[in-house]
Write a structure and sequence with these properties.
Layout: E1 10-19, E2 25-33, E3 41-48, H1 57-69, E4 73-78, H2 95-109, E5 114-123, H3 125-136, E6 141-147, E7 160-161, E8 164-165, H4 168-179, H5 192-202, H6 206-211, H7 218-221, E9 235-241, H8 249-256, E10 261-265, H9 283-296, E11 308-314, E12 327-332, E13 342-348, E14 351-353, E15 361-363, H10 390-393, E16 397-400, E17 408-412, E18 415-422, E19 428-436, E20 442-451, E21 470-475, E22 479-483, E23 488-494, E24 510-522, E25 543-547, E26 550-557, E27 564-577, E28 583-595, E29 598-614, E30 617-629, E31 633-644, E32 647-659
Parallel strand pairs: 3-4, 3-5, 5-6, 6-9, 9-10, 10-11, 11-22
Antiparallel strand pairs: 1-2, 2-4, 7-8, 11-12, 13-14, 13-24, 15-24, 16-23, 17-22, 17-24, 18-21, 18-24, 19-20, 19-23, 25-27, 26-27, 27-28, 28-29, 29-30, 30-31, 31-32
Helix pairs in contact: 2-3
Amino acid sequence: MNNDTSLRDIEEDADFGITLSDGCRLSARLWKPKDAGSDPVPVILEYLPYRKRDGTCARDALTHPWFAERGYACLRVDMRGNGDSEGVMQDEYTPQELADAVEVINQIAAQDWCNGRVGMMGISWGGFNGLQVAVLDPAPLKAVITLCSTVDRYADDIHYKGGCLLNENLGWGSTMWAYSSRAPDPALRPDWRAMWLERLENEPFLPSVWLRHQRRDAYWEHGSVCEDYSAIKAKVLAIGGWGDAYKNAVPKLVEALPDAKGIVGPWVHKYPHFAVPEPRIGFLQEALRWWDHWLKDIDTGVTQDPDYRAYIMDGARPQRWYTERPGRWAAEEYGATTHIPHRSLHLTNNGLSDGAGALRAEVSSPQDCGAESGEYCAIWLGPEMPGDQRRDDTHSATFDSAPAEDDTDIFGAPRITLRLSSDQPQTQIAVRLNHVHPDGATTRITYGVMNLSHRDGHANPSHLTPGEPLRVVFHLDHIAYRLPKGHQLRVSVSTNYWPLIWPAPQAARITLHSGTMNLPVRRKARRDECRFEPPTAAPPWEVETLREAKSVRRRETDMTTGVVSLIIEDDFGKLRDKQHGLIAGSVARERWDIHPNDPLSARGTCHWTEEIERDNIRLRTEAHSKMWCDADTFFLSARIEAYENDECIYARDVSDQIPRDHI
């Protein structure tokens, strides 16, 4: 029994089945009030490929029972082809995936324990498909809470950024190569082995799929909700974090959707009731207010909340990891950031100044410039943040401001305008806005990258005419950051940003002829302008730790060849679920190699090990992938191996060659 009499007693079904119209059975984990049959409740749906049985258990335990006790049925569904669900997953956000979600919503809304209203909630993949399903507008779907997501699958996801190829395209594709290779829990499916072999035989190697779409074509338009915001009728609460890759969707959704609200904190890619860096917030209470209003018709005051609440981080010294970011909460009653006034700073031969001045600067960065960029998407809780930018700045054209006369709150997406020329037909640039401390330590505030072949749009790139000046305009990522009085801003421009983006086929030299940074500067927030309840959660997942987690990041230079390598080793540990006994473990390894003088030396290598154990059954997959290039072609290879009790029962190799298309 619950001690709090206002809470409802709940029950859990660990393998709630949903059979789709084509006969495919999806497996879900369902928490709901025991008396929901006589007092029906709304449903909160989280719909993912990340395995409810041994993948998202830690966050599910903290979150879904908490909502269920407060009068909701929480449904955590394994998507087709993943976890304990049947079928095969062919790609991310496919029409099949979204159609399946609509079927799930309509089936669940018709249950006698549901009041006919459904909300979708999710982070990352679940944040993406919540918005995408809302575009399809199934009648029961009334509200969405999307976290760490995007509105544009081409320009603001893990594949391409500013028309540049992100190395995360290989890194995350390799992660999914491993994730979707895992078997169902043998305790739940008598045909688990046949399901496993079907997955292994049919699972696509997604980096090959994504690399065949190097322009923003119809493939990327599908699922990009920015194509038609008006199609979204469900009410959207959007949440993000400044330590995450997905910083831009929240302000865009707030300004595009009626009644949408946005919250951005200092966090990495995690739910904000257990995210880092702190301060955390009472996310569950905020979500409950959203659900109660839109799914139960209770006036919780959410429509009177400020449209946009963002945490302004105090300028901090560069660190590879932060446990806390001091700062304050700012609230914008109407809109997000487009109304924030801008200050124009000009790139000149004398630095960064309020007035225009002459500029002629050349830059040709070594291929390993970008070593301090950090992870594209900080998620694994290792040393993933950007480091001290001084090393990368020595390989860049840099422009420093005078010391700030007062604290300066940068609040929005800075815009950079450059007039430049290149000595190569294919060139890319990275622009960083940095905070220079009085002793020279340099913190990256925000950044942007641009493939100059995409200067006129991502659909129809074209080569540059060497030596011919051109105008380039693009935005850096959104941020809320306080530059302290007496400290300086720096704009740094480089021609490479490895290992975050893949290099252009030739080393380029660019000449800067003029440049302006339009900086959104908000009135100074002297104290918190809004407040949140402290974080709370349901009891944590009960596990036995069999192997501790450990994360490693190191750089190596081969003194013979000159090749510089970033080596990443993330051992996520090995755990036994104390409730049902399943054992699961995972290890990820990545290596990114490049010679500072040779863009064609770039090479990415990934290797994941996935383990599950049940009684006398030990199952393991080894997922390998590699990518390299020449001037005209990308080359990929991948291998999947499956082991049952240490005997290899399946292996498959994939190789591919894909022409470079203005990248």
